[in-house]
Design brief:
Blueprint (H helix, E strand, L loop, with lengths): L2 H24 L10 H6 L6 H12 L2 H10 L5 H24 L5 H9 L2 H35 L5 H49 L30 H11 L2 H7 L5 H17 L1 H16 L6 H9 L2 H38 L6 H23 L5 H25 E2 L3 H20 L6 H23 L5 E2 L13
Antiparallel strand pairs: 1-2
């Protein structure tokens, strides 16, 4: 039996085992006759803290992180992961109690309640949908396919592999809902962590723990103004990026909203934060830095190259399965959250308030998958996928976070003021990154965030004639389970 045959056999066995374990865990827990948004999109409030933590971790950790961050081949990008700890703490202590108090299915449902308008909810949901479908879904399956080719050297077209990821990932989301997605995420996450840390150890051994010869700017956590993350951006936009990503982003927050109580959800978020600080930073930077010493500046091919060279042949199939699990996890999470936003925030609000949930979700998923696959060739032309993704996030992140902030901290704000501020923020940030960029894009996110808040309050007071009242956050945690 050839080495490639052995690797393929191991690959299929490992992914098959994850699928079987997921089926066993989920069997009998979903009543398919119930057409319930909370059952399908929030697992009926039945996720324990273990599965909340596992799903949050693996939804975030995929090839766009492993390939993209290691592709920068510098220590500095670990700051994204380290600062994520702050974002997760704010999710646990600030946003989760509010989501549970309001019995939300989607994060944007909170906006409808705060502004008393389905239109602001629909706008923000549409923006999330756009960035999911046109940016992150194609990026995930593209980087997954790129990694597989870089690691194995397999002679298969990149788009073919991307299509395979898209089809299998969508199947999890459509057939099992969030419960199956979260359970498979947790099993796959354990495998990814073990294999990822093994790659870190083998990388360090390959250079005898000797980082000499690597330029100092690649080994520092204090970036200058020309680096991807200048140190001063940590004082401005970085914090707000993390709050947006972990606390308002449906793809991530949906997992934490699917526990039986807010306390159980918070335990899961704390566990995810611990994993993020202790394990993830080394996984997303050390292999790339070592690859720079061994091969030079090879960009997004660094991770696949070093894994293919350092792992024993008999382990390559296992690692390929781990990466496939990560890709499938992130992709099916994006698909599931996109379907939730379309069904709950748009279709039920504007088209039909009592749709056939499974049929509608399935149709929406097929459309989202086709779009994502069609976008893959565009992302294949990117020099650094992770930097591109972070810049594109800014188009919606700060306007949306400003909308949440005004809605949470103030009462008597007209929804039209919020909508105008959000749209203006998108235009403002787009002009910053594509027309005139006086400062680093993370600084411009900071500027965009506060400009949107100021604009919403100004329009509300001086154009619409309403006096906003500062009410602050109301953080009393609810004691009951979600229904």
């Amino acid at each position: 039996m050839s080495e490639q045959t052995i690797q393929l056999t191991v690959f299929c066995l490992v992914l098959g085992a994850i699928a079987v374990l997921t089926y066993i865990k989920c069997r009998g827990k979903t009543n398919r006759s119930i057409n319930s948004n909370k059952e399908y999109f929030l697992a009926g409030g039945g996720l324990t803290w273990v599965f909340v933590a596992g799903s949050i971790t693996l939804t975030n950790l995929s090839t766009d992180q492993l390939v993209g961050m290691n592709g920068n081949q510098m220590l500095l990008v670990a700051l994204w992961e380290l600062s994520g700890f702050v974002g997760l703490m704010i999710l646990a202590k600030v946003f989760l109690p509010v989501y549970y108090q309001n019995n939300c299915t989607t994060t944007t449902e909170l906006l409808e309640r705060r502004y008393n308008s389905k239109h602001v909810r629909g706008l923000v949901s549409a923006m999330f949908l756009f960035i999911n479908v046109f940016v992150f879904q194609p990026a995930v399956i593209y980087t997954g396919a790129l990694f597989m080719i870089s690691m194995t050297g397999i002679d298969v077209d990149l788009l073919t592999i991307a299509i395979a990821f898209a089809v299998f990932g969508a199947a999890y989301a459509v057939l099992g809902g969030l419960r199956a997605v979260a359970v498979s995420d947790t099993y796959g996450g354990a495998l990814v962590l073990v294999m990822g840390l093994l790659v870190v150890a083998l990388s360090l051994i390959a250079i005898d723990f000797d980082f000499s010869g690597i330029p100092a700017e690649r080994l520092t956590l204090i970036g200058d103004s020309a680096s991807p993350i200048p140190w001063h951006t940590l004082l401005t936009g970085m914090l707000f990026i993390q709050i947006f990503y972990w606390s308002t982003n449906q793809t991530i927050t949906q997992r934490a909203m699917a526990a039986p109580t807010v306390g159980e959800a918070q335990k899961g978020v704390y566990a995810a934060a611990f994993i993020r600080v202790v394990f993830i930073p080394s996984m997303v930077v050390i292999p790339g830095i070592v690859a720079f010493k061994l091969y030079g500046d090879i960009g997004d091919q660094a991770y696949g190259r070093i894994v293919g060279d350092l792992l024993p042949n008999w382990l390559l199939g296992v690692f390929a399965a781990a990466i496939a699990a990560a890709v499938l996890s992130t992709f099916n999470s994006l698909v599931n959250s996109s379907a939730a936003m379309y069904v709950c925030d748009l279709h039920e609000a504007y088209i039909n308030d009592k749709p056939n949930l499974r049929v509608l979700s399935g149709i929406a998923t097929i459309i989202f998958v086709v779009i994502a696959v069609a976008m893959v060739p565009i992302y294949a032309q990117s020099e650094s996928i992770i930097n591109l993704l972070q810049e594109l996030w800014g188009l919606i992140s700060m306007p949306i976070l400003a909308c949440f902030t005004v809605g949470l901290l103030f009462s008597n704000v007209d929804y039209r003021a919020a909508i105008i501020a959000v749209i203006s923020g998108v235009v403002m940030y787009a002009s910053f990154i594509w027309i005139w960029a006086p400062l680093h894009y993370i600084h411009m996110m900071f500027v965009t965030f506060f400009s949107c808040i100021g604009l919403a309050l100004f329009i509300n007071r001086f154009i619409l004639g309403n006096r906003a009242e500062f009410i602050g956050l109301q953080l009393e945690a609810p004691k009951q389970s979600i229904s």
